[in-house]
Design goal:
The chain is mainly α. About 80% of the residues lie in helices and about 0% in strands.
């Protein structure tokens, strides 16, 4: 069961109204993907204001590499904004039909989406760490915002992983998914907070 619309083809106002409505989708999962996509978009903005400037020419190759990788990430996250709703609608459909096997397969799809967002969030922190040092200093606050949003994207995606795992019978899948998430949690939180604090401190010292 899919949706008869595409969120990305509609005005932002329509999407916000859909999230606000008393309907099951789009909900938190789609919003997580949207925030993560905005985070990736901010990285692109910083890159676009850095690449091509003589001051940052020494880092051109690395910047172009990040831009290509982040471009793929943004495309994937943008697709997740809609895909999460499609998956969730199918979970509800098969759960209502008492088709637990089909419902669990779509729960696994939801877990896969949000585990991927968790992993992407760490990758974005890596981009932020580089851009905080080598990116356009005029956009340092945007770089810091990307760091904060990346950590938030991890935490919120984690909630969606956990809520799906809670209702699943496949113990091996639950353990594997839990381990994957735990493996990056401390790293993303510690590195994300560190680079955010570094940027914040730098801005405060310039008063």
């Amino acid at each position: 069961m899919g949706n008869a619309f595409n969120y990305l083809d509609e005005p932002l106002k329509n999407y916000l109204e859909r999230v606000s409505a008393r309907t099951p989708a789009p909900g938190g999962g789609s919003a997580v993907a949207c925030v993560a996509a905005i985070c990736s978009s901010l990285i692109n903005m910083v890159l676009n204001y850095t690449i091509g400037k003589e001051k940052y020419a020494a880092h051109a190759a690395e910047l172009e590499k990040i831009k290509a990788e982040n471009g793929d990430i943004l495309q994937k996250l943008s697709a997740y904004i809609e895909e999460d709703s499609v998956v969730y609608n199918n979970i509800r459909k098969y759960s209502a039909e008492k088709n637990t096997a089909a419902a669990e397969e779509y729960m696994k799809k939801s877990v896969a989406i949000h585990l991927d967002i968790c992993k992407i969030s760490l990758k974005i922190i890596e981009f932020v760490e580089f851009l905080a040092e080598k990116g356009n200093k005029n956009l340092i606050s945007d770089t810091g915002i990307a760091a904060s949003l990346a950590v938030s994207s991890f935490h919120t995606a984690k909630l969606n992983v956990i809520i799906n795992l809670k209702f699943m019978e496949d113990g091996a899948f639950v353990r594997k998914s839990t381990d994957e998430m735990a493996a990056i949690e401390n790293e993303i939180v510690n590195r994300g907070e560190a680079v955010y604090r570094k940027i914040l401190t730098g801005l405060e010292e310039k008063k």
